[in-house]
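input
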Amino acid sequence: MVAIAWAPLYAHPLPAGHRFPMLKYELLPEQLLREGTISEVNLFQPVAAADADILPVHDAGYYQRLLHGQLTRQEERATGFPWSPELIARETTILGGTLACARHALQHGAALNVAGGTHHAFRDRGEGFCLLNDQAAAAAWLLARPELGVRQVLIVDLDVHQGNGTASIFREEPRVFTFSMHGARNYPHRKEQSDLDLALADSTDDATYLQLLAETMPRLLDEVRPDFVLYLSGVDVLATDKLGHLSLTREGCRRRDEYVLGLCHRHAIPVVVCMGGGYSERLTDIIEAHANTFRAAQNLWG
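output
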């Protein structure tokens, strides 16, 4: 059974300028339930991560200032969010959801977090709507427990934005291989160095994107030999996205997810999927593209 982490506070209220992107966290589970892709048994409500699961990938000083609302105005502006206790509850619960998904995937093959993919969070700061790096925390949690048998983690980041925070956190950690395939001209303007970065030209279409992915992923599985995959399936690669410069169709995005998840399934590699970004003008484009990720996982592991 595919487990799906979701909590009502994933979509906690924000000022008007931030509200629209948050609607997907409410509507996506409703859509999946309504169409019968999942049932209530697939959903679980995560709890906030413990400090001990956050501090391996975040500086203690930054984390304490974040918890207590002591970020400078400049630091808060860089995150994109106004600080509030509810925001911290949301962020620590999203991270807790990804950790819980990792535990489930070890047993059942795959799990998905309706939120997560906060790849712009660095060890000592937040950026780009990311405060705490959930996939980094999950990778560290897996590697800190030898009894789980995870010796090598592969992070596959296919959000349109480079996973700069994740790359920075694991720059000196050979047991985590970071792969980011992103728009060359997208945020962040100053890129970090992942273990493998593939920077795509503006208007990259389905055929070019999928061919490059097919040329890359099998080689990575052969060379990295991961025991676990963390997949960031952002749908901001769509041509309709306001913040992306690529030209994928919804069908191309669906085929991307089916390909990555299919490889994990065939190679029996546990995988956790986090949703990442999606900022199309029409909410339908965002929901349907994300829903395709869940449909693909359910078809393989459901």
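quick obs: The domain at 3-301 is CATH 3.40.800.20 (Arginase; Chain A).
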